[in-house]
Design brief:
Elements: E1 3-7, H1 11-23, E2 27-31, H2 34-41, E3 48-51, H3 60-69, E4 78-82, H4 87-95, E5 100-103, H5 108-138, H6 145-151, H7 167-177, H8 182-189, H9 193-206, H10 212-222
Parallel strand pairs: 1-2, 1-3, 3-4, 4-5
Length: about 230
């Protein structure tokens, strides 16, 4: 069950969102400000965040900036819900790394649809990475049985789809597999090309691959990352 963190200072709206999400089989955590949300994230690991912009203590923009500055949460699905609907406000939200920006008032079904799409996208990238890793193993690569067990890829693993990559690395992997350059990836994900290169290096190391082109070639052989 996916866990969603709601960050909203309006208690009535938090209740409405919580009831709707729980009815749709999500687990829900709540916070009344960005500062409180950061404290929550030290205890839990949400799968997605829905946040207001105008809040006390720490507003949503600053909260989003701090989330995106964290390696562990750099690419967690993030949706803004705000009464601030000016173009400049929405642009700032996207520039900070939000995946979507909905203006109040909004329809609950629209939040549900966008949240479902973002979570499925993340899950799809995880599956694609597992396919590539399995292909490397079946092609007599350097990945040992011990390494596969460490990756959670053995048959007895409690969660065989789990890979040792951070959410940020999951997103970068998907872009690398499409053959994009570091500059192109950085522009898409609102990060520097140096940060992209750091993620690529970590991905290759964790998957026991030697070159970037090998990763792209293996993904292309599967024909699933088009």
């Amino acid at each position: 069950m996916s866990e969603i963190l709601i960050v909203e200072d309006d208690a009535r709206l938090r209740d409405i969102l919580r009831d709707y999400l729980e009815e749709n089989r999500y687990q829900v955590s709540e916070a009344a400000s960005g500062q409180e949300a950061i404290l929550q994230m030290n205890k839990i690991r949400p799968d997605a965040i829905i946040s207001d912009v105008s809040m006390p203590e720490m507003n949503g923009f600053e909260f989003c900036r701090r989330v995106r500055a964290s390696r562990s949460y750099q690419f967690i699905p993030f949706i803004f819900l705000s009464a601030r609907g000016q173009v400049d406000d929405r642009l700032q939200g996207y520039q900070l790394g939000a995946d979507d920006y909905l203006v109040k008032p909004f329809e609950l079904w629209e939040i549900g649809a966008k949240l479902k799409m973002l979570l499925e996208r993340t899950s799809r990238l995880q599956r694609e990475m597992l396919d590539v890793l399995q292909l490397v193993n079946h092609s007599n690569s350097d990945i040992s049985l011990h390494s596969m067990e460490a990756f959670g890829g053995d048959e007895e693993s409690e969660n065989p789809d789990e890979l040792p990559l951070t959410p940020a690395e999951v997103q970068v992997f998907g872009q690398v597999a499409l053959g994009l350059t570091n500059k192109e990836i950085g522009e898409r994900l609102f990060i520097s090309h140096r940060t992209v290169q750091t993620h690529v290096s970590h991905i290759l190391q964790k998957l026991n691959l030697s070159t970037r082109s090998q990763l792209i070639r293996l993904a292309a052989q599967r024909g699933e990352l088009n």
